[in-house]
Amino acid sequence: VFPSLAQAQASVANEVYRELGQPSVFLFCPTEYCSSLCSPSPSKSCYLLTLGQELLPEIGVIWTGPKVVSQELSATLLEEVEGVLQRRPVIWDNLYANDYDCRRVFLGPYTGRAPGLMARLHGLLLNPNCELQANFIPIHTLGSWFQSELGSCAHPDRTGMETAAGPGDSQCPQEGSYSPQEALELALLDWVAEINRQALEPGR
Questions:
Q1: What phi and psi, each to the nearest 5 degrees, are found at residue 92?
Q2: CATH code, domain carrying 111
Q3: 202 or 70: which carries more pLDDT confidence?
Q4: Region Disordered: start and end of each range (predicted)?
Q5: Does residue 94 belong to any structural domain of this protein?
Q6: In which domain, by residue range, is 31 found?
Q7: Residue 162: Cβ-neighbour burial (10 angstroms; 0-12, 13-18, 19+)
Q8: Strand ranges (DSSP E) for the chain?
Q9: How many domains, in total, are found in the chain?
Q10: pLDDT tens digits, residue range 126-138?
């Protein structure tokens, strides 16, 4: 019926979206959901180009970055993805996912994400460790990164590098930068307090 997989998927997604009454949040995960799965590249992928043209503009598209588990996310890559999908992507961040190797638990701070990324995102989902309590630091430091992004007056240029606010921008705080190490220390302080609080609960 359809000339390509992308057109089939877009048609079904659009129909479901309409049938559900066009909800405010409706996410589509493409078959090519990271750069390493694209042939030959995101900007030249016939599959992604078709999705960008055929999917209704209100439908969010999920993207994991250069790889399924991406150690770094750059504004340059997100700009490329936005161009081909004709919308800002929703990042599905697998930085802490350990379902592929449950012998490992990831407890480090949220890191490897360039400053100024929020302006290029439609949203961000964090795929956590399978062990619930192990996600305190990941989620806490993600919150610190998010607050830093909200408070930053940085303006990402076309290369994804941060451009500092000028001397005349006195109403904007220039700190706004995210420090993974500082975020980790804050998270550890709060985690120890939470552990101590739980230890005092009856039956613990």
A1: -100, 95
A2: 3.20.20.80
A3: 70
A4: 157-177
A5: yes
A6: 5-153+179-200
A7: middle
A8: 27-28, 60-63, 90-93, 123-126, 155-156, 162-163
A9: 1
A10: 999 999 999 999 9
